[in-house]
Structures are given as C-alpha cells and as structure tokens.
Amino acid sequence: MRSDSGAKIDILLPFYEGEAYFPEMLDSLKEQSLMDFRLLVRDDGSRVRLNRLPELPFPAELLPSHRHVGVLEAVNELYLQSSAPYLMFCDQDDVWFKSKVELTLRKMQEAERLYGADTPLLVFTDMSVTDRNLFCLSGSFYNYARINPAFCSLERLLTQNVPSACTIMINRATASLAFPLPPEAVMHDHWLSLCAAAFGKIVYLDCGTMFYRQHGNNVFGIEPYGVRYLLRMMRRGLKTVRARFLRNVAQAGAFLERYGDRLDRERAEHVRAFATIARQGFWRRRYTLLSAGVLKSGFLRNLGTMLVI
Questions:
Q1: 290: how many CB neighbours lie within 10 A of its CB?
Q2: Is residue 167 within 8 Å of 101, Cβ to Cβ?
Q3: 194 contacts 260 by C-beta, under 8 angstroms
C-alpha cells in the first residue's frame, strides 16, 4: 500500500505559531537520505497564518484551516488526509538528522518481519536535547530526563508517556486502531503508545535521530531529573501537579471505554483500577498504583505521585 501521492510515509505536522523555526525544520527534511515521504501540514490558526509552503523536493500539502482546534483535533484532521502505510509526526521547531526517516523505516520493517505487518507497531528513537540555538544540552533525551525507554508496558504508560511524537513512526495497523484521537487524550503520542502497548508492540531504536529544541514555548518541555526536579514540582503547587495526574486518569477512562472489551482480563482490571483512582480512598489509591505496576521512571517521580494523589 502506498499513499495517493505515491509516498511510503506521510509526515503529519500540526503547525501553530511556528514561523521562527519552521524554515530550519523544512531544511532538515530536504536533506533526508530517504525522501519517500509526503508532508501534510495544518496551520491551527496562528496569528501569522501559514498561507503557503515553499517549493520542496518532496510532495507537501497545506490543509485549509479556519479556526484553532488544538493539537489533538489538528492531528485528527491531518490523519484523515493521510493514506500512506506508515505515519510519522513532526514538530515545527525540531531539526531532523539526515538519516532519521531511513533508520526509522528500516527498524519498522524489521519489526513487521518479526511480528507481522498486521500487528499494531510503534517505533521510536532517542534525540539530542538542545537550547533554542541548537546548543547541545544532552546527547540523549532519555539520559537527560532519566526516563527508561524500556518502560513501555501498558501499565507504566498509563501514568507516564515514554515515546515522543517527533520520533515516532506507526504502521497503518496502529493508525486504524488509534484514530480518531479522543479529547481526553493527554497528547497524540501518549494515546498512540497506549494503543500499541495494549494490542501490538513498541520498538525502541537506541540512537538519536533529531535535535529536540527547548525554547520555553514547548507544549511539553523536558527538564533534567534529580532532587531539583522534585523541588520544581513542589514549587508549581500540588494543585497543578495533581491536575496533570488527573489528565492521565481521564485518558485511561477514555481508553477503557473504547477498548475495554478487547483487553485481556488482567490488563482491563489494571486500567479500570487506575481510571477510577480518584474515587478510591487514601490508601487504596496508593495500593492501586503499586499492585498494578502503574509506575514512572525514577524514585523521585513515584514519590511525588504518592504525595499528590
């Protein structure tokens, strides 16, 4: 199966207020060692509207948009225009390494040979963390954040996402399962990860494939992990941290509603316990996380969760 454009991969890019870094992003796409892709862009109502795309050496389409709908709905609309057997996701402020598309596709095809093309699959990679000027802060996102990329079980993903959207490739089996994204999804990468973990396989490619730029306006940025991390969480206030935790709970409820009858008994019980955690008593909430294995990477993160729930 190939897309209507003949491309093997559709790259979905929800654009919003990204004119400062967008040219660098496009330049990195122009230099890809494998260019068998089409770029689909939707401007989500930026103040400086993206009215057209420059001339590019690969197929690219700018979807018409008239209103701000948010990232999830923007990705849903982009998905409706996609037809390629594989999907990737792009952020307007990132810079991809030349081999990113080629290496990720190769890993996906290896996974399909191992597990079957009809199996929902998600491949993700590491990335280099930089400041706004692409000065490298860390060669590894996962070392910088102290997140274990192997912690991709459904239970662990309920409370902490691991794959980042801008490093993800999914096959058509995952896309058909996961879309449309529900409004309760924390973010599209988190929802896709839950679907792949529950019904297919998540595969990690242990190499950096892009620069992950931190500039202060990221939807979800990343901070170095340690005691200072816990102190920052405390300064933000329990209400803010608890609200973020409850977004994961709401997402679990939506996941259970859509897929509960397709989950095996044990997994369904774990998801149900987490989805109803807000109605449980003080000790029961903590028992639920521990007994179901709904844990994050790092002692301090889990300690913080136990303090706020």
A1: 11
A2: no
A3: no
